[in-house]
UniProtKB/TrEMBL annotation:
Family: Belongs to the MoaC family.
Physiological role: Catalyzes the conversion of (8S)-3',8-cyclo-7,8-dihydroguanosine 5'-triphosphate to cyclic pyranopterin monophosphate (cPMP).
Gene: moaC
Protein name: Cyclic pyranopterin monophosphate synthase
Organism: Comamonas denitrificans
Superkingdom to which the source organism belongs: Bacteria
Residues the record lists as binding substrate: L81, C82, H83, M119, E120
Domain Molybdopterin cofactor biosynthesis C (MoaC) residues, every copy: 21-156
The keyword rRNA-binding is annotated on this UniProt entry: no
Any one GO BP annotation for this protein: Mo-molybdopterin cofactor biosynthetic process
Quaternary structure annotation from Swiss-Prot or TrEMBL: Homohexamer; trimer of dimers.
Amino acid sequence: MPTPSPSSPLTHFDAQGQAHMVDVGAKAATERTAIAQGRIVMQPATLALVRSGSAKKGDVLGVARIAAIMAAKKTSDLIPLCHPLALTRVAVDFSLQPDENAITCTATVQTVGPTGVEMEALTAVQVGLLTIYDMCKAADKTMVMQDIRVLEKHGGKSGSWVLA
């Protein structure tokens, strides 16, 4: 494996080019926030089941919200080299978009620590959408998850960033 150059933006490699967890011990603990979003598109009848609360498995969005929050808290167990963080806030919101037969999931994650929470916000969104899929797949196997991305991040050495 080639060793990344010193100017490489990839930081999870040591001097020998081996993957390692980045040392954030010397970084200042600051308030950090990330907001991620994604959506799941489904058949109109499936969206109607979710909206009415009559899905066979119960309250789809309530279960998906809890799953997303739990996933954010367990991100370091799922993503190799991701630092375990003490999260101070995880908020997950779902928005039904009937004109597009879609549900949008937005996760806001905060911590006070030496590294950011983008991975936690992305993980929350993906698990929230996967939970919707799991709870509705008997009615609709054609659902598609899409547009999963970080919308904003704030805090830390690099400051704020907002998707244009």
